[in-house]
Amino acid sequence: MSMPGRAQRRGTFQTTLGGHSYSFADLRDLLAKATPLRSGDVLAGVAAESAAERVAAQTVLADVPLAHFLDEAVVPYEDDDVTRLIMDSHDAEAFAPVRSLTVGGFRDWLLSWEADTAALTALAPGLTPEMVAATSKLMRVGDLVAVARKTRVVTALRTTIGLEGRLATRLQPNHPTDDAVGITASLVDGLLHGAGDAVVGINPATDRPSTVRALLELVDDARRRLDAPIQSCVLTHVTTTLELLEQGAPVDLVFQSVAGTQAANRGFGVTLDQLREAHAAASELHRGTVGDNVTYFETGQGSALSADAHHGVDEQTLEARAYAVCRAFDPLLVNTVVGFIGPEYLYDGKQILRAGLEDHLCGKLLGVPMGVDVCYTNHAEADADDTDTLLLTLGAAGCGFVITVPGGDDIMLNYQSLSFQDVLQVRQTLGLRPAPEFEAWLGSVGLLDDAGRVPQLVPEPIRALMA
Amino acid sequence: MTTTDPWETLRAATRARVGLGRAGDGLSTAENLRLAAAHAQARDAVHTALDVDAVVAALGDRAGPVVRSQVADRTEYLQRPDLGRRLAPDHGLTEGEYDLSVVIADGLSARAVADHAVAVVDALLPRLEGWSVAPVVVALQSRVALGDEIAAALGARMVLVLIGERPGMSSPDSLGAYLTWEPRAGRVDSERNCVSNIRPPDGLGYDAAAEVLAALMHEAFRRQLTGVELKDTGAALPPAAG
């Protein structure tokens, strides 16, 4: 399905709205101007100049044929390996059912009864990030939830993520000095609240390989002592993980932050070849019990702009392109860290809410197992009401997993995410359950009652971790 | 009915908010109010204007001009970091010949600056005997890189920017110190050295911060550079206090 040497066909898009005529230089410009308002696009100088221009762009975008996206790249094919990955891996056969549709027609089709879970699963390899980003720009919050709810991406290692009616959690026991006792305390607190079924994932304060290895062994030791179906990850650079894999460290998941352009990935110090190598090395360990997905990626709108590597493309389209990178390495988990990057990219609770739901839908439509770090920094115009709203809407949208930290306060990264209690509450409100393997383990140690609630008690094997 | 939790051991082991009281599945009223209070402190740190007169008074005869970035207000400051790096015209800075310019910048926490900035200057300057130090500039609506333009206008070979860091829920008053050799517009972060989390008693103390900064600054002058290369060979930075 290779399409090398694809022409970068460019043409001007025009329309008239309310007596004014609007013109858009190319697809990249049209997508940026059609994007619902967010601070990062204003900062980059690519946003619509007025509300009317935005709707004019959306109106034009609705009539662009989906097939046009295979002819006009937003970042030149010759200059960018992410564009080449997207174009060269496009599955024309999977694309066939929607090939004749426009962007607006595709939105209508996604909302139709015909577009059920099986149809959406089959379609994923035929969609490009730019197609799904474009379509999401024409959707309201209700649409983003409704379509995501029927889109399912299921992955597994020691637990199964993404099943209907389930909401898993990453337990994030970070500590500012990587202190083993401090991390264990947060790990225990999370387990006692039924968290950790997606991953126990630590952001280390240092990239020193010996420290990273000690943290990997800490969680792996706890897993074996508890006989619990959990996977661990220390979120260090992929080159550090490769080094530790060679040393025989207990690496369940290879982690890397990725973005939607080659230049932004260079800013992260990572290449697609390095990801291929690490994916292969971790796969060879066969550490899974119910599946073999061994990568974990994090992304976030604005990362390419902050690396000055955005090529004039809006931040939401670039974010969707990052999922094409993830998709190539069969991830267990992909996490959009939606409110972390700061108010210069997503200013307030309204922008964060929409971005979280866009990312979640776009990732799943592309076949990527999406989770969301429902979060904000203290200099954003957001608070716990906003994270509650995003968590509830993501729960309704069938989100695979969310991030949880003690009290929602990450004392290492200095931002607010969800608390363990937030997730217990939303699981009860929406009738959601943990990953099945983890749910069975919680039941076996007495941490799940017949109503699916987590009682407040301390089973002896977990208490012993603190000794 | 709120149940009390038995997990004292956990709470003693970390500053993380472990072992919180629950009400059903959610957080108890007391815990919710504690979290709201911590968030309110961080919000106020971001949005309260710096008391410039108090800082200038504390600096005494070391005080120089007060300058602003091209940002109009806090809302714009938060969304336009590019404008926060550029100096407003009519700044009143006059060119001289200095080894060092010190800039006190509000950044994202006026509280950090009000509580700690002048104390760091007090601890640092006696460790720089023989240096010609420009009058200390106070900069409003400022990002770190505004110091580059300020120091260039003053004719200083190095700039130290003391700036309020992004407040965490448990650290609304953290001061950062950024050092840049031959400052001018366009310098990037990898060309700077940073000492962060200055906030006694929980974080780094004034004398400890001044000691590390003075060591970095002497080494920067000797090697005529700051940034990644200096960090690799220069003074060992103490870990951020936990």
Protein model, in words:
The complex is a heterodimer of chains A (467) and B (242). Chain A has helices at residues 27-34, 39-44, 51-62, 81-88, 92-95, 103-111, 117-123, 129-136, 141-149, 180-192, 209-226, 238-247, 262-267, 272-283, 303-306, 315-327, 349-365, 384-396, 420-430, 436-444, 460-465, and strands at 13-17, 20-24, 155-156, 160-161, 168-171, 199-202, 232-234, 254-257, 295-299, 333-336, 370-372, 401-404, 409-410, 415-416. By secondary structure, chain A is α/β, with parallel strands linked by helices. In chain A, strand 11, helix 18 and strand 12 (401-404) form a beta-alpha-beta unit. The relative contact order of chain A is 0.14. Chain B has a single domain (52-233), classed as Ethanolamine ammonia-lyase light chain (EutC) (Rossmann fold). Chain B is 38% helix and 19% strand. A six-stranded mixed beta sheet of chain B has the order 3-5-4-6-7-8, sandwiched between helices. A two-stranded antiparallel ribbon of chain B has the order 1-2. In chain B, strand 1 (22-23) and strand 2 (26-27) form a beta hairpin. At the A-B interface, helix 2, helix 10, strand 14 and helix 19 of A face helix 1, strand 2 and helix 2 of B.
Q: What's this model, at a glance?
A:
Chain B: InterPro entries: EutC, EutC_C, EutC_N. Chain A contains 21 helices and 14 strands. Chain A is α/β, with parallel strands linked by helices and 467 residues long.
